[in-house]
Structures are given as structure tokens and as C-alpha cells.
Request: fold
Amino acid sequence: MPTLAIHNPATGALIAELSADDAASVAAKTRAARAAQPAWRATPPSERRACIERFAASVGAEIETLAATLTSEMGKPVAQARNELKGLLGRIEFFLSAWPACVADETVFDEGGMSEVISHDPLGVVANISAWNYPYFVGGNVFVPALLTGNAVVYKPSEHATLTGQHIARLLHAAGVPTDVFTCLVGAGAVGRALLDQKVDGVFFTGSHATGVAIAQAVAPRLVKLQLELGGKDPSYVCDDANPVTAAGSLADGAMYNTGQSCCSVERIYVHEAIHDAFVDAFLKEVAGFKVGDPMDGVTYIGAITRAPQLEVLEAQVADAVARGAKLHCGGHRLPGPGNWFAPTVLTHVDHTMELMREESFGPVIGIQKVSSDAQALALMNDTRYGLTAGVYTPDEARARTLLAQVNSGSVYWNCCDRVSPRLPWSGYGDSGVGLTLSTYGIQTFTRPKAWHLRRG
Ligand code: NAD
Reply:
């Protein structure tokens, strides 16, 4: 029987060893989900709603336990784990309020005895292969609307957030969702690959670009619905009329929150030369104030790096940047273990020849580049294969809107960053992905619109 060992990234300690799935158990669980889905679809919407309401209530009641588990398995500071759980409750509230109307039958034509109606069928069995960095957010974006709309979900949490996945399954089942309607698999990439071999009606993935491409290739011959929420290299531009101190406070948080391990973390900053030095001074002061340490301590702001191999990526990006002329102001190195630690790192004199400004860092590392015009900033913001989020800091709304309208990214921010709203669609251009979650579109995406042509008489 395969097993999955779970280590605390902050200490290196083994915290659990779980029995893992194999190809046979993945196949059996997916078949069971297929068998259970019609009854779930036929369950009155009021009962499906009640299950999700009970789930939300128990998440609220267990917030401390759930936050502690999340922190112990992926190293997120516990205050940020609590924030994520509270954020999940807000997202559930949105889904519950928006869901009935956006999937209600819609008569789009009714004349001369002929009616045309759109209804929304559930997809059926949905595979959700998920990431570890915000497991309640990226998981909840899928399983909450998928279950509400009558789908069964086979959920493959990240191997770095599996205890959290098991909590989610336990609470959903206790809330009344049948065990075969929501299944949590245990295992790493091989279990994800086994899930892709099953007969499913949709594959919803959150993770890296490389895995997203592998998944797209694996499911291509079967033509199932596919959504990929992938990485980012999210830029922000601070204009010459911005307040450098306010912008620095906002962007330091955007770059380092969740230890920089967010798809929408600020990953590149462009600052107009007129305020560049003042901005950098304020940014460094802000970063120096971030408390690095035990993620279980409620005042910690920067926790552990979840995946040990990422330390090498961060080191290599810093070394490459410095070799090409970047100035290292702080950090740039691992912190003493046990566990996986990297010091908050700020570099200036950076440019796009450097990996640091082109490839996702996914850590507490940021490059700040001086620019001399809006046109230069815009060209640099768009000089990327990704396109998840981008921001502009200026008091001038018209200037921000003009710039943001020309940025190729799914979300754009004026005087803010690293922000996700359940009311807005979450999607990316280019290598940031295909499809979307959140908003009413992110509910409808778990349904198949059906066209009814109805002639009376
Ligand atoms: P990852 O690609 O390493 O793993 C994601 C999931 O895929 C895991 O559950 C893993 O076990 C599984 N997997 C790995 N190989 C597989 C394969 N061949 N077939 C099927 N499943 C496979 O990503 P990660 O390290 O968990 O997450 C970090 C990445 O996720 C970052 O790039 C981040 O930007 C991205 N992300 C994007 C969003 C978004 O909304 N766009 C949100 C969060 C994270």
C-alpha cells in the first residue's frame, strides 16, 4: 500500500504518514462518484444549499484547528491561515447568494407559439487537482460551486496540503454531502495522473504552468472540459505622482504576504525615476519590519518556504540577477534550518535579461526596476508570457485606467494589489491559464448550458 509522508516545512519534522491512493483506488472512487452524482443532482437545491451552509458553519467553529493544520503542513503564518479561512466563508456567502439566479432557466425568446430557453445541467463528475498555497481558496473556488450546481467532485489536494483536504472532506460529509459525492484522494503527482485516466466530465486544475501543460496533453484526446489556473509574474507600476511611502507599504505586503507564495503576489515593480529612491527607502523599511519566524506565532508575517526545491530556484534567481548587475539590498540567502527558510530579499538595478524579472519566483523575493515613462512601464509590464494581475499606483484615475486598459492580464488594480474578490472573475492571459473561477461566470462554468426549442401545439 503506498503512503504519503507529510513534513512540517518550518521544522522538517514528520507530522503524518497517510495511506495513499493508487490507480485502482482512484478508479474505484471515481466510479463511485459517477454512481452517486445523479442522486445528488436530483437532491433539492434547498438541501444542497443547507449542506454548504452547515459546512461553512463548521469551518467557522473549527477555525483554530483548521488554521493550525494548514500552518503545520505548508508553513503559512497562522494569522494568514485564519485570514484564508475567514476569506473562504466570504466566498461561500457569495456563491450561496449568486448561485440560484445565475443558473436559473432563462427564456430568451417567446413568440408565436415558439419558446427558446436556456437551462444549466451540471457537468457530472468533476476532477479537481489543486495547489497548496491557498488550499481553502483554490479548492473552495471549485468544490463549492461544483457541489451547489449538482456535480460530484473528486478532489486531489496537493501533497503539501493533504491534511487540509481531509478536513474539507470530513466537514463536507458531516454537513450532509454524501461520501461518494465529494472524495478526497491522497497522493502526489502520480495520483493526479491516475485521476486524469478516469472518465470525468471536467478537469479543474490549479498549479504550475508545467503541470498544467502536462494535464492539457493528457486529457486532450478525451475532449473533457478543462480549466487551468496557473502562475503569474505580476507587475505593478508606481507613477511619478504616486505617494512613494503609501505605495511601498501596499506593494511590500503584496510581494511578501503568504511568504510570496501566491499566484497574484507582486513579482515585479516598476517605479518612475522621479520617486524611485524614496520608494526604495520606504520599501526597505517596510520589509525590515516584517517578522520572520515560527509560523505558529500569531505575530509572524513571513513563514517557511513550503517546497524545499524552491529554495534553489530563489537562490539561482538572485545569483543570476546579481551576476547581471542587480544590487542586493537585503536577504538573498537561505536562513538556518531546520526547515525551509529564505530571507526577505529586495533587489534594484534589475532588468528583463534576468530570470528574476521573467520567471515566477514564488517566494519573498522582489526586483524593483527604475523607469522613465508610462510607455516604458507599460511595455515592461506586458513583456511576459504570463498575464494574471497587474497594478498601477497614481492618484490620477484617468491615467491608471488608460494604462490598465492596455495591460494583458486577467485582473487589474488601481492603487492596490494581491487582491481577489469572489464577485469578479479570476482568470489569466497567456501562460497564466485557461478558463476562470469566481463571479457568476465561475458558477456557470460547472454547468453545461442546454438549449431548449419549444413549439406549443
Ligand atoms: P504543481 O503544478 O506542482 O502541483 C499542483 C497539483 O498538481 C498538485 O496536486 C500535484 O500533486 C498535481 N500534479 C503534479 N504533477 C501532475 C501530473 N502530471 N498530472 C496530474 N497532477 C499532477 O503546483 P503547486 O506547487 O502545487 O502550486 C504552485 C503553482 O500554482 C504556482 O505556479 C502558482 O502560481 C500556481 N497557482 C495559481 C493560482 C491561480 O489562481 N492562477 C492559484 C494558486 C496557485
Summary: Residues 78-102 form the longest helix (25 residues). The pocket of nicotinamide-adenine-dinucleotide is lined by residues 129-134, 138, 156, 158-159, 188-189, 192-193, 196, 206-208, 211, 214-215, 229-232, 263, 360, 362, 388, 426, 428, 433 (CB under 6 Å). The chain has two domains: 3-230+432-455, 234-421.
